[in-house]
Specification:
This protein has 155 residues and is α+β, with helices and mostly antiparallel strands. The protein has helices at residues 2-12, 15-53, 59-63, 67-87, 138-147; strands spanning 106-111, 116-119, 125-128, 133-137, 150-152. The longest helix has 39 residues, at 15-53. The radius of gyration is 28 Å and the shape is elongated. It starts with a helix and ends with a strand.
Length: 155
């Protein structure tokens, strides 16, 4: 008798359950799309952090990343480094240096903290001590500016 009742319910269609199942399935698919979009946006932001801060992230940013995001950042960092070594000849080409085209090749910088000796390509060394100002090649000190060792002095 029970099997006859379930067959008659199946034949009658129970359209109210089918509608609810379809509605729930559509809600789950929408939520899945939202989560994937959110995760993709986070990956784009993490990729941008590599270009903005260099290969070492500040601890405040690193603290807010999950272990998987840190792993993805490290893999992206290694992949980018491998590519930059492959295109630049012997020394490689650092693509992260001039994100915006420079107006001049040399800039005036102020040292924010003691760093020590800093060698320029022509062989001269400059002692970077706190509050000292120097006129250095832009491409050579941009990484130190991003790390917070130097600041660009605007004339």
């Amino acid at each position: 008798a029970a099997s006859c009742r379930s067959r008659s319910e199946a034949k009658s269609g129970r359209t109210d359950l089918i509608f609810l199942i379809r509605f729930r399935h559509c809600c789950l698919l929408r939520n899945q799309r939202c989560v994937v979009a959110y995760l993709y946006d986070r990956l784009l932001r993490i990729r941008a952090l590599r270009w903005e801060y260099g290969s070492v992230l500040p601890s405040a940013i690193h603290f807010h990343m999950s272990a998987e995001e840190v792993e993805w950042f490290n893999r992206y960092k290694k992949s980018l480094a491998t590519y930059m070594r492959s295109v630049g000849g012997e020394e490689g080409l650092d693509l992260t240096q001039d994100i915006k085209p420079p107006k001049s090749l040399y800039i005036e910088v102020r040292c924010l903290k003691d760093y020590g000796e800093f060698e320029i390509d022509d062989g001269t060394t400059v002692l970077l001590k706190k509050n000292s100002q120097h006129f250095l090649p832009r491409w050579k000190c941009e990484q130190l500016i991003r790390q917070g060792v130097l600041e660009h002095v605007l004339s």
